[in-house]
Amino acid sequence: MLNWRIRLFAADVSVGDTSASATVVIIAVVLLALSIALAGLAIWLWRVTAVDDPSLSVLEEMSSRRYREADSAQKALLRTGATPVIPDDGENDDEVICQHE
Protein backbone atom coordinates (compact mmCIF):
# COMPACT_ATOMS: atom_id res chain seq x y z
CA MET A 1 0.00 0.00 0.00
CA LEU A 2 2.93 2.26 0.56
CA ASN A 3 4.10 3.59 -2.74
CA TRP A 4 6.51 6.47 -3.21
CA ARG A 5 4.18 8.55 -5.34
CA ILE A 6 2.35 11.60 -4.01
CA ARG A 7 -0.59 13.50 -5.48
CA LEU A 8 0.32 17.19 -5.52
CA PHE A 9 -1.84 19.70 -7.36
CA ALA A 10 -3.46 16.82 -9.27
CA ALA A 11 -0.07 15.78 -10.67
CA ASP A 12 1.55 12.43 -10.17
CA VAL A 13 4.91 13.20 -8.53
CA SER A 14 7.45 10.74 -7.25
CA VAL A 15 10.25 11.20 -4.73
CA GLY A 16 13.35 12.61 -6.39
CA ASP A 17 11.37 14.22 -9.23
CA THR A 18 13.19 17.32 -10.50
CA SER A 19 9.99 19.16 -11.44
CA ALA A 20 8.70 18.78 -7.88
CA SER A 21 12.00 20.04 -6.52
CA ALA A 22 11.83 23.05 -8.81
CA THR A 23 8.28 23.78 -7.64
CA VAL A 24 9.35 23.68 -4.00
CA VAL A 25 12.31 25.98 -4.68
CA ILE A 26 10.11 28.46 -6.56
CA ILE A 27 7.54 28.51 -3.75
CA ALA A 28 10.29 29.00 -1.15
CA VAL A 29 11.83 31.89 -3.10
CA VAL A 30 8.43 33.57 -3.57
CA LEU A 31 7.65 33.24 0.14
CA LEU A 32 11.07 34.62 1.07
CA ALA A 33 10.60 37.61 -1.26
CA LEU A 34 7.14 38.19 0.20
CA SER A 35 8.50 38.14 3.75
CA ILE A 36 11.22 40.66 2.84
CA ALA A 37 8.63 42.92 1.20
CA LEU A 38 6.36 42.73 4.25
CA ALA A 39 9.27 43.48 6.59
CA GLY A 40 10.13 46.53 4.48
CA LEU A 41 6.50 47.66 4.58
CA ALA A 42 6.42 47.25 8.38
CA ILE A 43 9.59 49.35 8.79
CA TRP A 44 8.24 52.04 6.46
CA LEU A 45 4.91 52.18 8.32
CA TRP A 46 6.71 52.33 11.67
CA ARG A 47 8.72 55.36 10.55
CA VAL A 48 5.81 57.16 8.87
CA THR A 49 3.45 56.80 11.82
CA ALA A 50 5.99 57.72 14.52
CA VAL A 51 4.76 60.47 16.83
CA ASP A 52 7.09 63.45 16.97
CA ASP A 53 7.65 65.57 20.04
CA PRO A 54 5.65 68.82 19.70
CA SER A 55 8.78 70.83 20.45
CA LEU A 56 10.24 69.65 17.13
CA SER A 57 7.47 71.30 15.09
CA VAL A 58 9.54 74.49 14.80
CA LEU A 59 12.43 72.57 13.25
CA GLU A 60 10.03 70.81 10.89
CA GLU A 61 8.68 74.18 9.76
CA MET A 62 12.21 75.53 9.32
CA SER A 63 13.06 72.66 6.97
CA SER A 64 10.20 73.46 4.59
CA ARG A 65 10.59 75.19 1.25
CA ARG A 66 8.05 77.84 2.27
CA TYR A 67 10.32 78.83 5.18
CA ARG A 68 13.48 78.94 3.05
CA GLU A 69 11.85 81.19 0.44
CA ALA A 70 10.30 83.58 2.99
CA ASP A 71 11.80 86.90 4.08
CA SER A 72 12.90 87.45 7.69
CA ALA A 73 9.53 88.80 8.91
CA GLN A 74 7.64 85.86 7.40
CA LYS A 75 10.21 83.46 8.86
CA ALA A 76 9.62 84.86 12.34
CA LEU A 77 5.86 84.54 11.86
CA LEU A 78 6.23 80.93 10.67
CA ARG A 79 8.43 80.06 13.67
CA THR A 80 6.02 81.54 16.20
CA GLY A 81 3.06 79.86 14.48
CA ALA A 82 4.76 76.48 14.77
CA THR A 83 5.63 76.89 18.45
CA PRO A 84 3.43 74.62 20.57
CA VAL A 85 1.17 76.34 23.06
CA ILE A 86 1.52 75.00 26.58
CA PRO A 87 -1.47 75.88 28.75
CA ASP A 88 -0.63 77.49 32.08
CA ASP A 89 -2.37 75.58 34.84
CA GLY A 90 -0.82 77.61 37.64
CA GLU A 91 0.54 74.55 39.41
CA ASN A 92 4.16 75.20 38.52
CA ASP A 93 4.20 78.79 39.79
CA ASP A 94 4.69 77.85 43.45
CA GLU A 95 8.04 78.56 44.95
CA VAL A 96 10.03 75.55 46.06
CA ILE A 97 10.99 75.88 49.71
CA CYS A 98 13.91 73.82 50.97
CA GLN A 99 14.26 73.35 54.68
CA HIS A 100 17.73 72.62 55.96
CA GLU A 101 18.25 71.38 59.47
Structure at a glance:
With 101 residues, the protein is mainly alpha-helical. The chain has four helices and two strands, in the order ββαααα. It has a two-stranded antiparallel ribbon.
Molecular shape:
elongated
Give the N-terminus to C-terminus distance in angstroms. Answer: 95 Å
Radius of gyration: 32 Å
Give the percentage of residues in beta strands: 5-15%
Structural class, from helix and strand content?
mainly alpha
Number of structural domains: 2
> Total helix count?
4
What are the low-pLDDT stretches, counting only 5+ consecutive residues below 50?
none
Oligomeric status: single chain
Largest sheet: 2 strands, antiparallel
The percent range for helix content is 40-55%
Supply the key terms.
101 residues; mainly alpha; 2 domains; two-stranded antiparallel sheet; 4 helices; 2 strands; 51% helix
Descriptive account of the structure:
By secondary structure, the protein is mainly alpha-helical. The chain has two domains: 44 residues; 33 residues. 51% of the residues lie in helices and 8% in strands. The chain has a two-stranded antiparallel ribbon. A hairpin with a 2-residue loop joins strand 1 and strand 2. The longest helix has 31 residues. The radius of gyration is 32 Å and the shape is elongated. The N and C termini lie far apart (95 Å).
Please write out the topology:
Layout: E1 5-8, E2 11-14, H1 18-48, H2 57-62, H3 65-68, H4 72-82
Antiparallel strand pairs: 1-2
